[in-house]
């Protein structure tokens, strides 16, 4: 099996990370992977904001949890049940704000997210895509955090991806091959 297929098949969402920062080269590789993603009409309707400041990440995490508790109590309870961390103490999180919520723009941010995950896997790093921070950026403190992280005017939260040395031992999810049909 070639390396790309192996990365696709072996990637999993890592929800625990070792306390080890990413190197500059690793950060750059992940960010460039996002920038290399295809997008409809090559619009690239997003920003790519890497955050490696651990204290800032802790503040964001706490505020996401607070916003989640207000907006989606059941989700907040699930997070509390698995350690109380939305971003799992990952040493590096890439936020991908999006210009608009059109069908293609949301697909575009999803592709950028998976590019980051596959790049992380290829570097021996774990990663997890995160939609939960949406509660923060669209909640009461949303304007503060959008400005604090430097979202462009009018941009909203698209997706975020945490990355770091995995301390989790998940297996890749089983493939639902019964959902596949091939015509011709
Ligand atoms: C759009 C999207 C949003 C997600 N949001 C979260 C999230 O906020 N927190 C989390 O822990 N996992 C999140 N995940 C990860 C999924 O739970 C995970 O991909 C799924 O359970 C399959 O597991 P696997 O990634 O290990 O194959 C998200 C995944 C996607 C694609």
Describe this structure in words.
The chain has 184 residues and is of the alpha+beta class. It has seven helices and four strands, in the order H-H-E-H-H-E-H-E-H-H-E. It has helices at 3-10, 24-35, 54-71, 73-81, 103-122, 134-137, 142-148, and strands at residues 49-51, 92-98, 126-130, 156-164. The model has no long low-confidence stretch (mean pLDDT 97). Flavin mononucleotide (FMN) binds next to strand 3.
CATH architecture: 3-Layer(aba) Sandwich
Give the bound compounds. flavin mononucleotide
Please tell me the total number of domains.
Answer: 1
Give start-end ranges of low-pLDDT stretches. Answer: none
The largest β sheet comes out as:
4 strands, antiparallel
Which geometry do the CA atoms define?
globular
Question: What is the CA-based Rg, rounded?
Answer: 17 Å
Assign the structural class, choosing from mainly alpha, mainly beta, alpha/beta, alpha+beta, or little secondary structure.
alpha+beta
Which characteristics define this entry?
single chain, 184 residues, alpha+beta, NADH Oxidase, four-stranded antiparallel beta sheet, 4 strands, globular, binds flavin mononucleotide
Task: Report a brief summary of the structure.
This protein is of the alpha+beta class. The chain contains seven helices and four strands, in the order ααβααβαβααβ.
């Amino acid at each position: 099996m070639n390396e790309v297929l192996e990365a696709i098949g072996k990637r999993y969402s890592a929800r625990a990370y070792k306390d080890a920062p990413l190197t500059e080269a690793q950060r750059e590789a992940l960010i460039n992977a996002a920038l290399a993603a295809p997008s409809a009409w090559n619009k690239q309707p997003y920003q790519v904001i890497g955050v490696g400041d651990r204290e800032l990440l802790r503040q964001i995490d706490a505020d996401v949890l607070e916003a989640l508790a207000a907006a989606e109590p059941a989700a907040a309870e699930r997070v509390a049940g698995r350690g109380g961390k939305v971003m799992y103490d990952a040493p590096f999180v890439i936020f991908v704000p999006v210009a608009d919520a059109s069908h293609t723009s949301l697909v575009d941010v999803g592709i950028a997210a998976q590019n980051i995950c596959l790049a992380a896997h290829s570097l021996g790093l774990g990663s997890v895509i995160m939609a939960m921070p949406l509660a923060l950026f669209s909640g009461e403190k949303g304007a503060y955090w959008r400005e604090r992280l430097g979202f462009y005017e009018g941009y909203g939260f698209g997706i975020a991806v945490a990355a770091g040395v995995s301390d989790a031992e998940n297996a890749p999810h089983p493939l639902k091959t019964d959902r596949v049909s091939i015509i011709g």
